[in-house]
Design goal:
The protein has 494 residues and is of the alpha/beta class. It contains ten helices and 20 strands.
Length: 494
């Protein structure tokens, strides 16, 4: 082969090599392949409004009306409006109490079962119009909205379907027209309502009545599309099935709405647990009062702090939102002892969860999807920043380990896990081992799962969270180890 031919081949080879290198450099720097992409979601998914609602964690309910003055829980509907006269009513105080407790949403009983309206409705005179309070010119709902808004707190409304006062109750057409008229009146007059509360509560001797819930729900969404509708059947938030402030040990945000009906006592177990095969995202809300009753009674006192913390672990810690009722008294104020207990409750929660001990250790995982590493579980974003294992067809066991730093021990008694629910609820089963000893065997996680160890305080080198069953690839947005000083027993794993 001549020298000229060899030179030509050499230059041709060199040209091909440089061309390939240049194309590869362009391919690698284009960003279209190297940018990590998230896993596919698993349906159903929450709406923006549902996610914002879930992140509130605790919502305040305020039961206030003629029952406050009659010392009853359920009024008869025959009460004289003149008994409603809260001479010291101060909704700013309500909002301040809520703000001090870290509450971002307050729901007011605009009308309870007795039919008395806390706003001047043009459809009935059984309201503040006929009371001596502010000479019949007052509007509790407006004052409530103004005070909450001034504190940066969102508002919600409860409009009882059961009305023991209005003579139209029992006539399906006439009463549903009346109810829908009041619903429109409220949502047109008071803007930016974030939750509206419907229930099926009524006494055993109540008149037969069919509520046009579908019509009501459609009207609500037409008037205020960002609102969350609560009822036994959603569509946005479901009742948890009881009033103890406790969700099921298994609690799915997914459920089949076609299996639900408002006021049906046979669905309470289904409401508590949800359904892993559910086609609708309808998370649960746990309602309970800070006192034994829902309305204020002079003879009652607020629940102990220890009981309220139990409620928090069993509601927020089981993938729910806690709806805590704090009723104003006859004067129109939240009683000092209730306000103090609520402040203590918030302070205790902040004390427990102010420092994530997992951040002081090192995190190991079974595998990592590129761009979705273990460090995402201990950052400040508990929703859209998450750890994802490698795709594996669901065959591998996924695990996370939190290791103490050399020469130290992890001291904790609460373990927290959160899923990236924006991409669906996935975990069906999980276990937690502390230094190799099985401490927790549980099912669902969802937005937040809190495990307060029965054994008490733990000193350990390693905590392992094993995901045993899933609907799809697990996506963990947050893990945490915390010390609850309000739990006094101690236990050391050896």
């Amino acid at each position: 082969m001549s020298m000229m031919v060899r030179l030509r081949l050499w230059w041709s080879s060199l040209f091909i090599i440089f061309t390939l290198l240049f194309q590869q450099l362009r391919f690698c720097t284009s960003g279209s392949v190297q940018t990590p992409v998230p896993p596919l979601p698993i349906l159903p998914l929450p709406t923006y409004s549902q996610i914002k609602w879930q992140q509130r964690e605790i919502v305040m309910f305020l039961h206030f009306g003629v029952n406050t003055f009659t010392d009853k829980e359920w009024g008869t509907g025959k009460e004289n409006p003149a008994i409603f006269n809260p001479t010291g009513l101060n909704t700013t105080q309500w909002a301040t109490v809520a703000a001090d407790a870290g509450i971002s949403l307050m729901i007011l009983t605009a009308k309870h079962h007795d039919g008395f309206c806390l706003w001047p409705s043009k459809y009935t005179d059984h309201s503040v119009i006929s009371s001596p309070w502010q000479g019949g010119k007052g509007d509790v709902v407006q004052d409530f909205v103004n005070a909450a808004t001034a504190q940066g707190i969102d508002v919600g409304i409860y409009l009882s379907p059961w009305d023991r006062h209005d003579p139209r109750y029992g006539n399906d057409l006439l009463y549903n027209q009346y109810y829908l008229a009041q619903l429109q009146e409220l949502l047109k007059k008071y803007q930016n309502v974030r939750e509206i509360w419907f229930d099926g509560a009524k006494g055993p001797k109540a008149k037969n009545m069919s509520y046009y819930f579908s019509d009501w729900f459609s009207m609500v969404k037409e008037l205020q599309s960002s609102i969350n509708i609560f009822s036994d059947a959603g569509p946005d938030v479901r009742w948890v099935g009881e009033e103890t402030g406790s969700a099921g040990y298994t609690c799915w945000s997914t459920i089949n709405r076609t299996s639900l009906s408002i006021g049906n006592p046979n669905i309470t177990r289904y409401l508590r647990s949800g359904d892993p095969k559910g086609t609708d995202w309808v998370p649960a809300e746990c309602d309970i009062s800070i006192r034994p009753g829902w309305f204020w009674h002079k003879s009652e006192s607020p629940k102990k702090l220890s009981l309220l913390l139990d409620v928090y672990y069993n509601s927020v810690g089981r993938n729910c939102v806690l709806l805590l009722n704090v009723p104003p008294n006859k004067t129109g104020l939240i009683t000092d002892v209730d306000a103090q207990r609520l402040k203590e409750f918030r302070s205790a929660i902040d004390t427990i969860f102010h420092h994530n001990l997992a951040e002081d250790g090192s995190i190991k995982v079974s595998s990592e999807r590129m761009g979705f590493g273990a460090e995402n579980m201990v950052d400040s974003d508990h929703l859209w920043s998450y750890w994802a294992p490698e795709d594996d067809g669901g065959e591998k066991e996924h695990w996370i380990e939190i290791w103490a730093r050399e020469g130290n021990l992890l001291r904790f008694n609460v373990i927290a896990i959160q899923e990236a629910i924006g991409l669906g609820q996935r975990i069906k089963g999980h276990q937690i081992y502390v230094d190799g000893k099985l401490m927790v065997e549980a099912t669902t996680v969802g937005y937040k799962r809190l495990h307060r160890l029965d054994a008490g305080e733990v000193h350990a080198r390693v905590v392992r969270i094993t995901i045993t069953q899933t609907r799809a690839l697990p996506l963990i947005s947050s893990i945490g180890l915390y010390f609850d000083p309000f739990s006094h027993s101690k236990f050391t794993v050896t």
